[in-house]
Amino acid sequence: MKQQRLAEEGDRELFKDLVGGVESVGPPGAIDNMVPETTEDFKKFSEKLCEKFASLEGSDHFQDFVANFIEILCRDQLNVATLKKVKQNAEAFHSAKLKDEKAKGKAASAKAANTKKASLKSGRANDHMSLAGGGYDDMDDFM
């Protein structure tokens, strides 16, 4: 429990650093220097955040970071109405991604089924002992 709380506090500090809780020196268009006030400013800020997240996407820790980041936002910063919108969008994206994964899985399995594999046919027609007559018959061992 204590370890989780420490991790959450660390994530909050990362969020504050990312959003501008710490003064930094950088280019004027950098995320750290942005203080959005209008709808247009927030759109630009959103684009910059998306670019930053896209650059971090290859990291092994990215998925965990995003999960913690969203958890902190939902718990601490969002009101109920906004949280409801986020929930609906997340569920819609989840369903769409599941359908895509299932379609990819079915396409891969159908492709594998379409490739013919060599097979060995066995049966009485290929049994040379039965063709020779008087050969071994399974029914001879019956009682």
Your description of this structure?
This protein is an all-alpha fold. The chain has a domain at 2-101: Serum Albumin, Chain A, Domain 1, CATH 1.10.246. 64% of the residues lie in helices and 0% in strands. The protein has helices spanning 2-19, 39-56, 62-77, 80-114, 128-132. The mean pLDDT is 79.
CATH architectural name of the domain at 2-101: Orthogonal Bundle
Q: Output the structural class.
A: mainly alpha
Give the mean pLDDT. Answer: 79
Number of strands: 0
List the helices and strands and how they pair.
Blueprint: H1 2-19, H2 39-56, H3 62-77, H4 80-114, H5 128-132
Helix pairs in contact: 1-3
Which features does this protein show?
143 residues; mainly alpha; Serum Albumin, Chain A, Domain 1; 64% helix; elongated
Give the gist of this structure:
The chain is 64% helix and 0% strand. The chain is mainly alpha-helical and 143 residues long. The chain has a domain at 2-101: Serum Albumin, Chain A, Domain 1.
